[in-house]
């Protein structure tokens, strides 16, 4: 199950962060997402690893913590997508697919002429779309 | 890098050293205690040797030299596993102390963000970590599974005072006193001993000691005995400059460090030094060497070689079914496994790492097979360390450490201590290789169940993240927060605060609101729990404006904040209170110097628009300046000119927005301005210096200011700000006396508990910088600085009753009321109005006249002159001597007419001068601003077209549409204004308006004729005469109302402005005519929305040119019907064409008659339509004949009606006789007549439109450049039907 998805701007400012749990763990997830940025930075700035996948937007598993797995995705505009999931055996292809759809949703959201770049995404349509994607992710990995 | 120089290397060289077990008699201790030291402490400084240079030969034949060496001394009673509980307590003590210390250190300074990575570990990490880590390692010592803590030698010390010293020596090494390690067989009890006789020189000469020493030598052998004389300094205590003991006595001992070892003179110290050095180089090292060699031989005999290995393997396998306890089988000191381990450890201690490693490897597999996990882990650990010390195979080293660590962890709480130690070593190993990130993860793994322990480890982990390259600041922050949580759980509040504060450096300035709030909130809470409410409040304030949090969280934050504030006792006064948010960009300061504002909305109008309005009224700038300069030199210094001027007794208003970012409502009370008043300018100067000094503590500055408000009055506002609300607050300060008034900021009270300040100036620098020129900072404050001058008169003005809504055309009489509450008179009043089309100034006498009756045409009225002065002059001067003073207001009539629909802003400015010349301000202006919404009412349009029956007669069509929603109007009167034109009805009014009113949405058309006024025909040549006005009443005569006279004020004035407004190009055209429609609301239907229904409405339509089809009008005059006997001859008919030139110049006219037969009938209509000027509607002409006929009908003509209906097909050709083309000149404004003749050949009806009229005006005649005006034209002939009948 996906616990949390987040969009983080290129200045590492949170643009959108949404948890999908019942529990009141927003703070924890904020921390997790925030920390994962360190790993994203490391991945991006480390020339050794970025050689063959220079143009790869999918950053893969960022780090496993306790009972979560954190995946990352970096767009060309240096916007980061973070995915926190409780599924311990997730197929990379699933995550990739998820991020691709998420990216499309994000692009649509920021293409709104009323969206101010660098400001939080408040679009309700985006939120609905994201929750649909998140739900469908749960199905595909379960089935 | 040399591993030995790394922190880990140092630590290993310090910690993994031979242990000397110390056994001493009480009298020895007693002697030593004279120096404030125990015996062990006395010896300890001399246990490490930096240059002993001892040759060592272990298993290999090749000797090597040891330069540095160290011994560890332990009392026999301490050679045991440390008590865990005691150790824990001790650690806790250390942590608490460190917490207190760090806390008091870091209380004042805010943690800086150490983004720059130059700082090394020691600068960043708190120093007590090192000590703590050492303690943690020490707690795990004296375990039975490893041998390096096993005592290598036993040092037995007996004092010379003791009775029977030889026996004492033997007693000391008594089995029941020995540590359990030796007793339970974990280590070899046959430990080598060294006998030491301690002699206290204060007890007497050394005779007895040397005697005993000789006995000892005999008893125990020469080599193993030594004599130590201490306390040689008999009388004076010695002060050691650099006390070697001071380093080792860390506890807070009662004696100061200088007093330590006060009886030990330099000889004693040297003696101790020699003793220890001999002990190590002559006893310990050779002992160990020997043991290594012996063990090595045994090991190689039993375990080395292929045969032994096979045997071992077989033997082990057989043992496999044995006890599978957690710890594996127990090994005696004489078991081969223990021996190998001892061999390894000894080799390690003597730094023969190759030998140690080979033995560790050997034993490690054995332990693994035996499932002796703890021992296995211990060996793995040592292997890792050995690899590290050999500086080879980093991977191996780390693998071994990890292996050991996980194995220890698997043992559960049993191996926890060892796991910690192993982890710490591992971390040090990683740190030595700059692998801080990995080190951090190990720290994370060390965190056990003990909360305090894990808190410390997490904190250390966070520092590792900080030190890693590139530094991972976010993880640093995260782990600090985690660690802070743990600290909090075990009541180490101070540590918790410290970690959170460091974490702040990461989160501050980011937009991660949740995390920031969490950190600030907890810091605030913890500070509060420590009773440091001021700091707590400071942190809590950061999170007050948490609009992103849920409502409950917001309530929690605010509640806690207020609780803390309350606990503090006194009311807080803070400068950075975020609740509510002040929108500083909405800040507006309104003060009145020479400009005064009569209505609130006048304030909001831009100064520029006022300036342009008042331009003509105000004394010219240069003139004013000369006046000013004269006064300035006397009254005010130059500096104060820059500041704003306000008048004593008149309020300075400051308005700005308060915004509540929360979802919960917050009560705000006591919102006031914080001002400073000073009586003279000198005082200001001194105060300025003062204030610049005080700027550090703004709150104090405010506090000082808030008290002295005797010289000014401030308004106070209380309100409740609902969730998400924004409220505009208006505050005022009223100075009472002359001087300087400065507005510093605003002060308010949140929930009645905390007082917030907001300084206006400090938040404005950008704004002022943008304006440029204002270079010095000093000038920024000028905005809020006012020079208060003495009270001068101020007029108050209002217009009543000005409607807020009005229908277009609504005409009203209003009254301007001016009051002067002060006792000083004002003079020289002037007034200007922005929209004269809407508002004009009446005459004083109008004030008493009744409206609208005063507009009625009086029967005996004389043609009064138009108010030419008002039309020409836009500034109205009140009559000389008009002065306003005291109770009686000045009333002045105004006329208002809603000219066009829309929202209209009316601006008025009234200028007046002070009678008192000594004042700084000599004149003032009163500005009034009103908004009027004008709704559409009647839409009136006119069309004129020349009558085809008579020259100089026109048909006027009026279309009226009622555009209101509900109102119905009575169309009362139509007046025409134009040179020698008068209007008359075509139909009786009853037929036009059967219901006498025009309902909402109703449209109606009616027709009038416009005729040349006969009254003024005599004056035709006089072009300068005034326009003639004629009126038509559109209501039945029965009503007793009289006709309104549009020739008197204000209708004439409004008409003038309408003309100006609607003016297009026909200026000076005598043929132009204006229409004024006067209507009234129908009385029966009053819209409740209008409190004051309009009485009279006027609609003006101007500049309808009569000569719209050209300056020439003509008419064919001839018989309509005639009888002729065609059998006799064809018929010749004479016609007359009347021409009229309505232009001001002579026109040249040519008439061409056309004979072509086909050019008749149908086409002509179209031609006419084409030649008429485009502003006439096509098809308009088709109707006119019918109407004309009706109007000019004669009994004779009516009989012929059916004839008219003949179809055009009956038209038969006719020919024009006479000239085919006629030229003539028609003088200006004159008639001409041309005879025409046609011949018809058969009876029938003929359309005599078969001619073309060309006209031309001299183009240079009047020299006017109007392009739109025609200079020549060509017109088709009008239809004129002639019926010729066969006479009988």
TrEMBL record, chain A:
SUPFAM superfamilies associated with the record: SNARE-like
Gene Ontology cellular-component terms listed: cytoplasm
Signal peptide: none
Pfam families referenced in this protein's UniProt entry, alphabetically: Sedlin_N (PF04628)
GO biological process: endoplasmic reticulum to Golgi vesicle-mediated transport
Recorded family membership: Belongs to the TRAPP small subunits family. Sedlin subfamily.
Name of the protein in question: Trafficking protein particle complex subunit 2-like protein
Originating organism: Cajanus cajan
TrEMBL record, chain B:
Entry's transmembrane regions: none
TPPC8 C-terminal Ig-like domain: residues covered: 1118-1250
Domain of life (superkingdom): Eukaryota
Domain TPPC8 first Ig-like: 606-754
Domain annotation TPPC8 second Ig-like: ranges: 809-926
Protein name: Trafficking protein particle complex subunit 8
Organism: Flemingia macrophylla
């Amino acid at each position: 199950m996906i616990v949390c998805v987040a969009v983080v701007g290129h200045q590492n400012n949170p643009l959108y962060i949404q948890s999908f749990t019942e529990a009141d763990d927003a703070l924890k997830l904020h921390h997790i997402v925030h920390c994962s940025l360190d790993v994203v930075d490391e991945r991006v700035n480390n020339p050794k690893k970025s050689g063959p996948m220079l143009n790869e937007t999918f950053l893969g598993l960022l780090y496993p913590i306790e009972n979560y797995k954190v995946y990352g995705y970096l767009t060309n505009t240096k916007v980061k997508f973070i995915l926190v999931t409780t599924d311990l055996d997730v197929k990379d292809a699933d995550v990739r697919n998820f991020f691709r759809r998420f990216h499309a949703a994000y692009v649509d959201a920021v293409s709104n002429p009323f969206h101010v770049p660098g400001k939080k995404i408040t679009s309700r349509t985006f939120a609905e779309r994201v929750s649909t994607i998140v739900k469908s992710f749960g199905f595909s990995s379960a089935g | 890098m040399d591993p030995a120089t790394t922190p880990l290397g140092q630590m290993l060289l310090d910690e993994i050293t031979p242990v000397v077990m110390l056994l001493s008699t009480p009298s020895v201790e007693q002697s030593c205690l004279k120096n404030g030291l125990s015996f062990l402490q006395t010896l300890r400084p001399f246990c490490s040797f930096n240059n002993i240079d001892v040759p060592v030969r272990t298993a290999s034949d090749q000797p090597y030299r040891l330069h540095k060496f160290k011994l560890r001394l332990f009392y026999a009673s301490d050679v045991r596993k440390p008590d865990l509980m005691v150790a824990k307590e001790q650690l806790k003590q250390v942590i608490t102390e460190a917490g207190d210390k760090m806390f008091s250190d870091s209380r004042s300074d805010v943690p800086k963000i150490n983004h720059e990575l130059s700082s090394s570990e020691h600068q960043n990490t708190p120093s007590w970590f090192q000590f703590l880590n050492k303690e943690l390692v020490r707690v795990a010592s004296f375990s039975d599974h490893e041998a390096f803590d096993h005592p290598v030698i036993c040092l037995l010390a007996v004092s010379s005072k003791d009775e029977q010293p030889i026996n004492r020596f033997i007693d000391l090494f008594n089995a029941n006193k020995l540590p359990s390690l030796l007793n339970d067989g974990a280590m070899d009890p046959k430990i080598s001993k060294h006998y030491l006789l301690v002699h206290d020189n204060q007890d007497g000469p050394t005779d007895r000691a040397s005697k005993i020493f000789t006995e000892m030598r005999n008893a125990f052998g020469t080599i193993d005995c030594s004599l130590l004389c201490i306390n040689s300094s008999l009388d004076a205590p010695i002060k050691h400059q650099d006390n070697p003991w001071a380093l080792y006595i860390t506890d807070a001992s009662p004696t100061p460090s200088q007093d330590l070892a006060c009886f030990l003179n330099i000889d004693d110290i040297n003696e101790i030094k020699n003793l220890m050095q001999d002990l190590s180089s002559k006893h310990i090292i050779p002992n160990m060497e020997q043991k290594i060699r012996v063990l090595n031989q045994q090991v190689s005999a039993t375990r080395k070689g292929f045969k032994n290995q096979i045997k071992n393997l077989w033997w082990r396998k057989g043992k496999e079914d044995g006890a599978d306890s957690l710890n594996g089988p127990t090994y005696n000191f004489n078991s081969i496994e223990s021996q190998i381990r001892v061999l390894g450890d000894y080799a390690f201690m003597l730094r023969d790492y190759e030998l140690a490693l080979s033995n560790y490897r050997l034993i490690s597999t054995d332990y693994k097979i035996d499932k002796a996990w703890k021992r296995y882990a211990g060996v793995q650990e040592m292997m890792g360390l050995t690899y590290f010390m050999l500086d080879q195979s980093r991977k191996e080293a780390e693998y071994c450490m990890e292996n050991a660590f996980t194995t220890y962890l698997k043992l559960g709480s049993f191996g926890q201590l060892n796991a910690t130690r192993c982890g710490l070593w591992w971390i040090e190993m990683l740190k030595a290789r700059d692998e801080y990130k990995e080190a951090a993860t190990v720290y994370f793994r060390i965190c056990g169940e003990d909360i305090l322990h894990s808190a410390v480890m997490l904190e250390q982990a966070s520092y590792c993240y900080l030190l890693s390259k590139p530094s991972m600041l976010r993880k640093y922050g995260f782990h600090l927060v985690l660690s802070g949580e743990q600290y909090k759980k075990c009541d180490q509040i101070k540590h918790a605060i410290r970690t959170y504060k460091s974490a702040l450096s990461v989160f501050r300035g980011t937009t991660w609101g949740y995390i920031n709030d969490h950190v600030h909130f907890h810091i605030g809470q913890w500070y509060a729990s420590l009773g440091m409410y001021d700091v707590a409040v400071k942190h809590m304030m950061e999170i007050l404006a948490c609009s992103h949090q849920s409502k409950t969280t917001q309530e929690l934050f605010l509640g806690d904040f207020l609780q803390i504030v309350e606990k503090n006792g006194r009311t807080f006064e803070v400068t950075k209170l975020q609740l509510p948010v002040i929108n500083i960009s909405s800040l507006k300061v309104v003060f009145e110097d020479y400009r005064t504002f009569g209505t609130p909305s006048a304030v909001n109008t831009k100064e520029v628009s006022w300036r342009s309005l008042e331009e003509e009224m105000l004394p010219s700038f240069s003139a004013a300046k000369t006046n000013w300069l004269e006064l300035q030199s006397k009254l005010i210094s130059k500096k104060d000119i820059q500041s704003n001027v306000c008048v004593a007794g008149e309020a300075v208003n400051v308005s700005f927005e308060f915004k509540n970012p929360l979802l919960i409502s917050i009560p705000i009370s006591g919102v006031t301005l914080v001002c400073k008043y000073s009586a003279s300018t000198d005082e200001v100067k001194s105060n300025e210096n003062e204030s610049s000094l005080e700027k550090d503590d703004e709150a104090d500055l405010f506090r000082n200011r808030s008290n002295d408000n005797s010289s000014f009055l401030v308004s106070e506002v209380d309100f409740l700000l609902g969730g998400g609300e924004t409220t505009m607050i208006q505050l005022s300060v009223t100075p009472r006396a002359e001087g300087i008034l400065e507005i510093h900021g605003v002060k308010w009270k949140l929930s009645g508990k905390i007082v917030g300040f907001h300084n206006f100036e400090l938040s404005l620098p950008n704004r002022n910088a943008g304006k440029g020129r204002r270079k010095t900072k000093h000038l920024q404050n000028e905005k809020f600085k006012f020079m208060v001058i003495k009270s001068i008169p101020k007029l108050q003005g209002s217009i009543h009753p000005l409607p807020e809504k009005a229908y277009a055309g609504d005409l009203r009489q209003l009254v301007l009321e001016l009051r002067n509450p002060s006792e000083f008179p004002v003079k020289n009043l002037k007034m200007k109005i922005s929209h004269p089309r809407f508002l004009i100034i009446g005459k004083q006498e109008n004030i008493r006249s009744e409206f609208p009756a005063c507009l009625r045409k009086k029967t005996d009225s004389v043609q009064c002159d138009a108010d030419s002065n008002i039309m020409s002059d836009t500034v109205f001067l009140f009559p000389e001597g008009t002065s306003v003073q005291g109770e009686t207001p000045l009333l002045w009539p105004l006329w208002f007419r809603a000219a066009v629909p829309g929202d209209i802003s009316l601006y008025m400015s009234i200028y007046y001068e002070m009678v008192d010349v000594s004042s700084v301000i000599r004149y003032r202006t009163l500005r009034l601003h009103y908004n009027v919404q004008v709704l559409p009412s009647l839409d009136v349009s006119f069309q004129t077209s020349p009558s085809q029956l008579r020259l100089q007669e026109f048909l006027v069509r009026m279309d009226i549409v009622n555009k209101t929603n509900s109102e119905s109007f009575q169309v009362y009167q139509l007046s025409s204004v134009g040179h020698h034109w008068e209007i008359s009805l075509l139909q009786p009014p009853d037929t036009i308006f059967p219901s006498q009113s025009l309902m909402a949405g109703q449209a109606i058309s009616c027709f009038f004729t416009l005729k040349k006024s006969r009254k003024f025909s005599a004056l035709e040549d006089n072009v300068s005469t005034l326009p003639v006005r004629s009126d038509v009443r559109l209501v039945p005569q029965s009503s007793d109302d009289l006709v309104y006279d549009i020739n008197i004020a204000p209708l004439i004035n409004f008409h003038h402005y309408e003309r100006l407004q609607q003016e297009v190009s026909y200026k000076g055209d005598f043929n132009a005519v204006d229409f004024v429609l006067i209507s009234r609301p129908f009385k029966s239907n009053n819209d409740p929305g209008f409190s004051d229904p309009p009485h009279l409405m006027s609609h003006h339509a101007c500049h309808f040119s009569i000569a719209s089809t050209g300056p020439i009008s003509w008419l064919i005059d001839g018989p309509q019907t005639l009888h002729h006997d065609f059998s006799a001859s064809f018929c010749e008919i004479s016609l007359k064409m009347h021409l009229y030139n309505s232009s001001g110049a002579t026109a040249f006219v040519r008439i061409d008659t056309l004979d072509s037969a086909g050019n008749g009938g149908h086409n002509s209509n179209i031609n006419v339509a084409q030649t008429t000027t485009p502003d006439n509607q096509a098809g308009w002409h088709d109707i006119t004949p019918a109407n004309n006929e009706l109007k000019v009908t004669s009994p004779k003509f009516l009989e012929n009606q059916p004839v008219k209906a003949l179809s055009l097909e009956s038209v038969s050709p006719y020919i024009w006789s006479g000239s085919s083309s006629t030229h003539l000149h028609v003088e200006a404004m004159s008639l001409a007549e041309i005879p025409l003749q046609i011949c018809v050949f058969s009876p029938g009806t003929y359309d005599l439109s078969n001619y073309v009229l060309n006209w031309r005006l001299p183009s240079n005649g009047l020299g006017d450049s109007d392009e739109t005006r025609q200079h020549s034209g060509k017109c088709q002939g009008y239809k004129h039907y002639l019926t010729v009948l066969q006479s009988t």
